What does this fold into?
Amino acid sequence: MCGIVAYVGPKDAAPILLEGLQRLEYRGYDSAGVVVSNKGLKVRKVKGRVADLAAAVPARFKGATGIGHTRWATHGVPSDENAHPHLSNDERIAVVHNGIIENADELRAKLEADGAVFLSETDTEVLAHLIARTTKEADSLEEAVRTALKRVVGTYGIAVIDAERPGEVVVARNGSPIVLGIGEKEMFAASDVAALVRYTRQVVHLEDGELAVLKADGFHTFASDARETAKEPLTVDWDTGHYDTGGYEHYLLKEISEQPDTVARTLRGRLDERFNVAHLGGLNMDAREVRSFRRVKIIGCGSAYYSGQIGAQLIEELARIPAGAEPASEFRYRNPVVEPDTLYVAISQSGETYDTLAAVQELKRKGGRVLGIVNTVGSAIARECDGGVYLHAGPEVSVASTKAFTSTAVAFALLALHMGRVRDLSPADGRRICEGLRRLPDQIKEILALEPQIKELAAKYAASPSMMFVGRVRGYPVAREGAQKLKEVSYVHAEAYPASELKHGPLALIGPEMPTVAIVPDDELLDKNLTTLGEIQARGGKVIMIGHRTADPKLANECIVVPKNEVELDPILLGIPLQLFAYHAAVALERDVDKPRNLAKSVTVE
Ligand code: G6P
It folds into this structure.
C-alpha cells in the first residue's frame, strides 16, 4: 500500500514520476504528490488521484532529481496537507514514506519541543524533521538518513532528497519494499517493479535494514551498520503489457479473462504423466521429509486465506494429512504453538502483505518449516520462506484478487498431488487428478463464455441490500471468496456460511429481500445441499445456484451451470462465475471497480 517512485538522471523527473505513480495507483489512491530538486525543492501534492496531481503540476516543473508518492491513509485523513512528500521546515529535506512509524507521537513531541512546526498529521513528517536535524552534522545525506532512522521504531520504505545535494536520492527499507531500477546514466527506485518496467528490466531488491544511494551514474547499497553490501541485479521478465487494460474496460475483467492462460502457466512443466505426479522444483524437500509431516497449517490474508481453505481441503483429501487454514493476521498475534512435524504454508499474491510476512518471520523464529505460495518473484515473503511454489500468474493490478486466487488453488492441487503421491495416493487417483488439472484451462474458457448470462443476473440482483453465500465442505471456501469479491467491488453486503450452519442461526435472515448464492457441486453432498435450497425457498428466499445440474426452476430461481471436473478440483472452477458476478454487480452499480473505496492491493502495514 502506498506507492513510491524516485528518479535521478539527465531527464526531467516529473513526467517519469507521474507515469510511475499511475502504475502504482492500485496500491493506494487517496492522495498523491511529487517533489523535484532544481535550485530548491518544488512540490505539488493533492488529495485525489494521480490524474488530479498530473493536472496540478505546471508545464514548467523542471528538475532532474525527484521523488513521488501515491497514498493510502493510515495517519490522518486524505488531504492536501497529509499527502506526501513531507518537507522539513527549511524546505531542504523531502521524504516519501510507505509503512508506519510506531514511535511517531513521541518523536513528534520531542521535535516540537525543539522548534519543529508540523504541517500534517502524518507519522512521515517526523522523518523530514529528524533528517533535517541530523543532516547538519552529517557528511552525506546517506549518513543523515541512517542516523535519523536509528531513532525510528516501525516499518518503512522511504525515499529522501536534499535540496543542497541535487543529483542524489537516498532510499531505505525496513518492512516495506524498495526496488532499484538501473537505467542508462539514470537510476530509478520504487516500491514495486510495476513503476519501473517501462524504463528498465534490471532491478535490485533492497533487504530489510538496507539503504541505497542513487546517482545518475549508479548506486551503492549499505547495511544498517554502514558496511557496503554487494547486490546482483535481477532481470525482470514482466512487460508493460501486464500493466495495461489490454482493451478491457477494467483490469478486473482483464484478469478474470486471462485465467485459462494463467492457470496453464501455473501448471506448466509441473505435471508428470509417466508417474502421475507433480514436480515442484522449488519445494526444497525430499520424499522422506514430505512423509514426516503430520499436519499442514496454511496462513494468508483476505482472498489468500480463502484460497488456503481450498488448499487445506485438497491436502486432506489427496494427501490425507490433517490440514487447516487461518488468517495470518490472527495467527501472528496468538503466540501459536509451532511444531517440528507441521508443514506451514504462507500464501500471498504480492508477497509483501505485512501480516503474512510477520507470521512467517514468527514461524521461522520458532523453528517452523515454511513454504510460500506466492505470485511475485523475489518478494519479501518468497525470500523469507524455505521453499515454495510460484504462481506465474503475472502481475495482478486490480485490487480484488481473481487470477492469483484461482492459481493459488491450482498450486495447492499440485502440492496436494505431490504430497499424496509420496504418501498414499494411488497411481490411478494420481492420473485422475493430473487429467483433471489438464482440463482446467479449457473448462475455464467455457465458464467465461457464460458471461452474458452472469452479467444479466448480476444486474438483476445488484440492488439487493444483502446477499447470503452458502456452500458445504469443498464449496464453503468458494462461498466465502464469492461473498468477499462482492463486498470488495460492489459494496453490497454479503455473508458466507456453511450451508449446514444456515439452520443454526442465519436462516432467520432469509426472505424475499435476501437472495442466496448456493455452491452446489455434483458430489456426495448434493442431496444435503438440495435440502438446504428447499429450506431457503420455503422462506421466500431466492436462490442462485452455481453447480453442475442443468437449470431446474424447482431447485433454484437461477442456475449457472459450470463444467464438471473431479470432485476435489471442482471448487477451482466454481469460484469463477462468482468473480464475474461481483464484477458485473459492481459495474451495474457504477462502482470504481479496480480501486474500491478504502482498500489497497498490498497491505504493507499492520
Ligand atoms: C489486501 C487486499 C486483498 C488481498 C489481501 C492479501 O487485503 O485488499 O484483496 O486478498 O490483501 O494480499 P496478498 O498480496 O498477500 O495475497
Observations:
- The chain has a mean pLDDT of 93.
